[in-house]
Input
Amino acid sequence: MRKMLSLISSALRLSAGRTGSRVVVSARTYADFTPQATFDIKKCDLHKLEEGPPVQAVLTREEGLQYYRTMQIMRRMELKADQLYKQKIIRGFCHLYDGQEACAVGIEAGINLTDHLITAYRAHGYTLTRGGTVREIMAELTGRRGGIAKGKGGSMHMYAKNFYGGNGIVGAQVPLGAGVALACKYQGKNELCVCLYGDGAANQGQIFETYNMASLWKLPCIFICENNRYGMGTSVERAAASTDYYKRGDFIPGLRVDGMDILCVREATKFAADHCRSGKGPIIMELQTYRYHGHSMSDPGISYRTREEIQEVRSKSDPISMLKDRMLNNNMASVEELKEIDVEVRKEIEDAAQFATTDPEPPLEDLCNHIFHNEPPLEVRGTNPWVKLKSVS
Amino acid sequence: MSSLFSSLKMMTKGAMRCVLITNHLKFFETIGNFQLLQVTVRDALNQAMDEELERDERVFLLGEEVAQYDGAYKVSRGLWKKYGDKRIIDTPISEMGFAGIAVGAAMAGLRPICEFMTFNFSMQAIDQVINSAAKTCYMSAGLQAVPIVFRGPNGASAGVAAQHSQCFAAWYGHCPGLKVVSPWNSEDARGLLKSAIRDDNPVVVLENELMYGVAFEVSEQGLSKDFTIPIGKAKVERPGNHVTLVSHSRMVGHCLDAAAVLAKEGIECEVINLRTIRPLDVETIEASVVKTNHLITVEGGWPQFGVGAEICARIMEGPAFNYLDAPVIRVTGVDIPMPYAKILEDNSTPQIKDIIFSVKKTLNM
Output
């Protein structure tokens, strides 16, 4: 049956001619794909926990395609940002997330949009998973009025519903996240807060203050350390006396998770979310992940690590490739289908980049707006005493 | 009615436990007279918080010793008993952590009051106050509001030495995105704290420990549950024609005392109580200078880059400059870390004689 169909399809393609319309031949129907499959995932290292997340995960075809698409969008978006930065269309700080896609997408798959999330400055991926559009994100990077923060925030200060940024001060987002969790508990809506930080931030004192209070008050907070092995140019061995970040919470139970495997991340997040929602208090997840880019666009990323190391991770552990291989090997999707998604993603990114480079910059009248919330208009001093600017909220 | 009686009960207890620090403390008026009531600044703050906690269930208080200890300075006395663990939260000694938690809670829809035992300790958390609270509404283009109050005693106390005596009016007053208020008397304390709690933006309330035990008359209107004082408006406490004295917090009392002494010599001082440090009510100061032609600022904090320095700059940039008959004079704390010995400490902050001396200097007497 398949041989016949492929014969027909090639015949049709030939007859369509070189400039002819693309002949869409459905070589396989959806009924031929495996609707779902079970995969073995790595067991998590546990700290102060009797049991961990399951070692098997069920992935449906729809989920697989959705995760693939989202991760590809994230990947392409970050690469496009790299391009625009090198063209000097994006300025200032730009911390790219490529390589870590499984973390953002996997976490979101384990929680609800009604839950809350806060992270540090490597935030473009999370802005996307929390509901921001690629257009809004890119226009914010290029500082245009169509940006998610109207051009006022930039790369590190993007916000969305139940997403509290985007925070520039290393570690400051962790107490903020616990505060969000406190509000969740206070308001009794069975919501939780996912509070992310990196291996570099993990040594911040305020994080330990937060561990203490979150544990004392049993706040519904999932602390997640995205360990990408380097805090800017400093490897974890040179920064931390203990690199077992999942144990650093001491009295807080912890999990060490393969952050390159989206299913592993998802299952661990679900496990952690259940822990929080059952009123047991906070939990820590360490995601072992990797960033392909340097710390930011001003860091080539090869002075403190070898190109070989980067290449090895890319070839052996790339999160998107891993998912793609799983789906193809289990007949959950076709090569063409995934290629089609790639093409659509490319187009979406191109459109967004087009918007981000052509949308006008914010109007000067907006300069002093939004200093306050819900406030009558006020006067703001300009650069000299005769410049009196107006601020509306 | 019942709140008045409970305030009376609290005030009786308070009056018995209060340390009488200044000579302003008066005993009770007749209890039957509800027109004017003697309320200490401490009780005014307590009532304000009590009323706002009752009014809006999103309001809660957190800080060191605020709950079971009744407050390090007893400002939150009785609140934990009334509202419980959920709304009055004792924190460990973790300023940076709990200030951040308070800001996060504000971002997620609550209305926290974050108490710093003194504002000296807020320095450990100042990143959360400025970078997480003050700047967020702007950075998010209005998407993310931060309705939080940071409050606590500010400035010099008595014998607590250098690390516990700094005035933070200038530091916080410097930053856009913050509102900063500095109450002097009980009515200020009630009205400004209530406004701060009802404000959808970060407000820093700089109280004064030495004023907590001082009682002032508060009108019936001032005792009503919805009494608020607008943030950003100064008050002329005493009208006068010869010189304008501008001050905030405890120094307002010193200015009034100096004015009383000078009045005997025929010099009438106009005393302005700033009430708000940021936004500064320059118009009220200018209107006064137009009338008196002489301006003296009085503050407890250090001179360099201080509140007085800002007022000088603003007056120079505005219409009142042309009405000045003499340069603006700043009376400030001495430019040193606060010493301990009483004689040294007494000579480190403005005394009434310093204000009188400056008035006579500017009037060429």
